[in-house]
Amino acid sequence: MPEGTCDCHFHVFAPHAPLASPRSYTPRIETLDGWLQLADAIGMAHGVLVQPSVYGFDNRVLLTALAAHAERLRGIVVIPPETDGDELMRLHRLGVRGVRINLRNKTGLPLEAVPTLASAIQHLGWQLQFQVGPDGVEAVTRTVLQYGITAVIDHAAFLPVADPAVEPGITALQRLLDTGSAYVKLSAPYRLAAAPDYPGFGALVARLAASHPERLLWGSDWPHTELFEAMPDDADLVSAMLDWLPDEPMRRKVFVTNPESLYWSTE
């Protein structure tokens, strides 16, 4: 992987941390030490921790990890929209750089939280990260245009890339990227297509790399939540992504310079 690679999407869990109820899944406990071992093994210099839905508004596991590796990590939290400015500044100093809106899991923040959050976080240079399906992309586009906030889409909006009818979804995603204020994560191909070859995902990567190279990010999606019975091999996933991005300058954009610009440009 390119020197300076950033994993823009992973989660950590901790023994005995209280879980939200109701929730979409019960996690297998995988701690930051596990991600650090993976990062060192495959060459990831930095990472962006994403608050998992199962912890709701309780960001303590994530914030503990950020505090332990302040230079190496950034974080995306889930917070009440009415969180006050002092708390936002505390989170910013710890390395938080955005808030996650999650329409796919129980306890996730809804789109209705966007107006209040966008107003509160803009001066910090934070982003709103959206976990939405294909039917949510146009709403994110409207959000970007209306509130002037930077948006990041998880897992290529879960586009069904093997379906011939996926074309309108790809076009909608490209229109979002056309705003110049959005990024999309080329991550978790197993959530979009069937293993082991993930038909259609490589074509999506090539198409977005040709049209919007400055707007792409990569994430490991470690530890692959909800897939505990059929865990993908991380080395195979990295190898596939490198095959889908064979051009070295393009790899550097996706793995290094794009995340540097998004997550490390504000102090």
From TrEMBL:
What Pfam families does the record tag this protein with?
A: Amidohydro_2
Where does the record place the Amidohydrolase-related domain?
Answer: 6-263
This chain belongs to the protein called GntR family transcriptional regulator
Origin organism of this chain?
A: Devosia nitrariae
